[in-house]
Design brief:
heterodimer, A: mainly alpha, 5 helices, elongated, B: about 80 residues, about 60% helix
């Protein structure tokens, strides 16, 4: 699996880094452009997957540890739930956009705290994109890491 | 006026992912010069992308560039050898 040529090994880490940057850009533009958390997360995961496929599991410069995957999968899910509950308790609806506050029911301090700092009035939508992006990125990467690990396990057993 | 959202969160996401780059495990030798070349290629890519995501503050993709800087800073600060 790690029998790739030297050309592949030299070019894949730079391409992985550029892919990851493109994924982050897609996540952060998700509220006003096509794309968003899932698409950006999948692009970041594609960078990790490219690195693992070329260098092989255990030899890849971009490889996620078990604790890292656990932590960021949990942050992604918990962040989404916490933002939903904040909307429920402050605005009256689950995932109510407290940063935009279309119904004028949220105090100004809370609205300012949850307002995404850009020229649009997106509120909490970019934050939800970021949480979904984190979750998809570690989720898809962990699937490929697991498959590569199974393959390595079978090859070692033979 | 520069929009701070993509700059701040691009840096944070870049730091998170850059903390996992470990160079001492790979067969290919990446030196400081390699990363300078990657950084210049990233700046060119950000310039070619334009003002994505459609803020009119700078003619460069601020989210892309801040993610690139975040990856390198995260690699320098947090990346540990295996």
């Amino acid at each position: 699996m790690s029998e790739g040529s030297m050309i592949l090994k030299i070019i894949s880490l730079p391409i992985s880094i550029i892919l990851i940057c493109l994924g982050i850009m897609t996540i952060l533009g998700g509220h006003i452009t096509p794309g968003g958390g899932f698409q950006g997360g999948a692009m970041i995961a594609s960078g990790i997957i490219l690195s693992i496929l070329v260098y092989g599991l255990g030899n890849s410069p971009l490889e996620l540890s078990h604790a890292y995957i656990e932590v960021f999968e949990s942050i992604g899910a918990l962040g989404f739930i916490i933002f939903g509950l904040i909307g429920l308790f402050v605005g009256g609806f689950y995932l109510y956009n407290v940063g935009t506050d279309l119904l004028n029911v949220v105090p100004t301090a809370i609205q300012t705290a949850f307002h995404y700092p850009d020229v649009t009035n997106a509120g909490i939508i970019p934050y939800l994109n970021i949480f979904v992006g984190l979750k998809v990125f570690v989720g898809l990467s962990s699937i490929v890491i697991a498959f590569a690990g199974f393959k390595k396990f079978v090859e070692e057993g033979e | 006026m520069l929009s701070l959202g993509p700059v701040i969160f691009g840096l944070i996401l870049g730091l998170i992912i850059g903390s996992q780059i470990k160079l001492n495990v790979s067969d290919a030798k990446f030196t400081l010069g390699s990363f300078v070349v990657i950084f210049i290629a990233g700046i060119v890519a950000a310039w070619q992308l334009g003002n994505f995501p459609f803020y009119t503050d700078l003619p460069i993709s601020t989210a892309f560039l801040s993610a690139l800087i975040g990856i390198f800073v995260g690699k320098l600060l947090f990346a540990r050898s295996k």
